Amino acid sequence: MNTVSATPYIASKKLTLSDPDWVRYALTGLALVIIVLFLVLPLTTVLIEAFAKGWTAYSASLTHPDALAAMRLTLLVALVTVPLTTVFGVSAAWAIARFEFRGKSLLITLIDLPFSVSPVIAGLIYVLIFGAQGWLGPWLAEQDIKIIFAVPGIILATLFVTFPFVARELIPLMQEIGHEEEEAALSLGASGWQTFFKITLPNIKWALLTGVLLCNARAMGEFGAVSVVSGHIRGLTNTLPLHVEVSYNEYDFVGAFASASILAALAIVTLVFKTVLEWKQNQDKKLKDKG
């Protein structure tokens, strides 16, 4: 009798156990200190240095021809790479989540490769392939095709570092969703494209947008791989991150931090939108579970 009656008491005691207040306060304080040191303080420093000489100097730095050229090139690279990465990501996720085929493990490994290879190494590989002394360099020179130290090389380097993002957002989600709804639509006479736009796309839309958002942020903020293949040619091959480095090395601190403020604003906007998209995805999942 005592053993039976003690069991609920022990269970209830276990359920009410919690960490001491000092542990929770210490961990919360430590998290806040880390956020201030590694997020708030750097962002504040960027803004202070950007406006150190006033709004006139700040706006003049951003409207400088080199800065404008860097912004245009950054936007161009993002406009080219993000759609290509999106198409690849959706296709790869569809193939991996829906089919079994020889080489599937290799495809997954290749998708994860940019996460494990340094961007600088990736840039060097492109130089070894397409550079003047590279494998294809002499042939490209004969055809008057310039890849390294030109926009095509920057796009290729950016594609390498960004192509996992969309696929990695979609693969686990599509594996979790399964393919029963798609098979039902196909059995009812829907075409492949109708099934994709009516069934698949609504189920993956928030994860897809999250992947596109992260891809865009990485494309506009990439430094390592682009630095190797760009040649740092003013007004031609300097993206916004490279323009920050060039300005800082030339002691143009206002220009460097003004350009950095644009990248910082992009990072904050990306973080906010990512949080909203993840919340929407969780809301849709809860609604589907209830249904």
The whole-number mean of residue pLDDT values reads 88
Largest sheet: none
What is the end-to-end distance? Answer: 44 Å
Order of helices and strands: HHHHHHHHHHHHHH
Q: What best-fitting shape do the alpha-carbon axes yield?
A: globular
Q: Whole-number radius of gyration?
A: 25 Å
Number of helices: 14
Structural class: mainly alpha
Q: Helical amount among residues, as a percent range?
A: over 70%
> Which residue ranges are poorly predicted, with pLDDT under 50 across at least 5 consecutive positions?
1-16
Name the beta content range: under 5%
Question: How many beta-strand segments?
Answer: 0
Describe the model.
By secondary structure, the chain is mostly helical. The protein contains 14 helices and no strands. It has helices at residues 2-16, 21-50, 54-62, 65-98, 104-116, 119-130, 137-142, 151-162, 164-177, 180-187, 192-221, 224-230, 240-249, 253-290. α4 packs antiparallel against α11 and α6 (119-130) packs parallel to α12 (224-230). The radius of gyration is 25 Å and the shape is globular. Mean pLDDT is 88; it is low at 1-16.
